[in-house]
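Appendix C: a fully annotated inverse folding record. The material below is reproduced so that readers can follow the format used throughout the book. The structure is listed first as tokens, followed by the designed sequence.
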């Protein structure tokens, strides 16, 4: 840490770079924390190349799986969720979860999906953006939290 201006410096090893919603991100393995983090490239300052030996990522780390879980979903507890979605949201679902996401049609106008997601405020925000065209069905904890957030949002409208 730089005591003059409070900057924190990290030594990281780049796993890969990607573009998500017009933002370039980089997946970095932080050896001291033994974890993978995602950084927006436009927010990185004072980037320097180091001569230190690179640390090899853990053998059991699956970058593709990790990327699917964290794009637009900040790290949180991993839960298998079932969502009910309006048919018009299918393109967004595929963009977000990938073409291999498990889905099934329940009517002409709706389908359901099952996927592992990181449960976080960003996950709920992702659901909110569809204005009621997507809702969680399970697990109950996710349904209850989503309902609480809806009630809080409605209560704040009356301020």
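Designed amino acids, in order:
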């Amino acid at each position: 840490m730089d005591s003059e201006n409070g900057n924190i410096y990290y030594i990281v090893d780049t796993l890969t770079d990607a573009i998500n919603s017009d933002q370039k991100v980089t997946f970095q393995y932080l050896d001291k924390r033994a974890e993978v983090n995602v950084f927006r490239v436009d927010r990185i300052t004072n980037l320097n190349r180091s001569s230190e030996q690179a640390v090899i990522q853990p053998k059991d780390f699956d970058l593709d799986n990790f990327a699917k879980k964290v794009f637009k979903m900040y790290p949180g507890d991993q839960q298998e969720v079932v969502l009910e979605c309006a048919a018009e949201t299918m393109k967004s679902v595929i963009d977000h979860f990938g073409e291999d996401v498990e889905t099934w049609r329940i009517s002409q106008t709706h389908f359901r999906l099952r996927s592992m997601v990181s449960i976080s405020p960003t996950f709920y925000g992702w659901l909110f953006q569809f204005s009621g065209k997507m809702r969680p069905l399970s697990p109950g904890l996710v349904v209850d939290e989503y309902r609480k957030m809806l009630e809080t949002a409605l209560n704040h409208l009356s301020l």
